[in-house]
Amino acid sequence: MIPAWSFICPTSELLPGEMRTGFDEVTGAAIVVFNIDGTLYALEDQCSHEEFALSAGDGFDAGAASVECVLHGARFDIRTGRPLCAPAYEPVARFPVKVENDGVWSRDDRD
Fold this sequence. Notes:
Layout: E1 6-10, E2 19-23, E3 30-36, E4 39-44, E5 60-61, E6 66-68, E7 75-77, E8 94-95, E9 97-100, E10 103-106
Antiparallel strand pairs: 1-10, 2-3, 3-4, 4-8, 5-6, 6-7, 9-10
């Protein structure tokens, strides 16, 4: 069964250099969507090192396409989810993202 898409925000509320959060309506997973120069990327909104929201604080760097967990300083590549420095060694989950009907949608497609 293909997971249902969850509405994150209207496209007008996610401009380049911005991020928005939402939740997968089926699994309850927290999702953060980033706009990097017009391309959208979605990650699980949880550091793989510690259960802390990546969207918390001011760790998003659109120019470097990275996000830092402000709790302990782990940094992740937004495009791949892979960790860029300690203390994180595991990637964060990446989710599909689509634009449809003037909205941004994503889903937790993990098995």
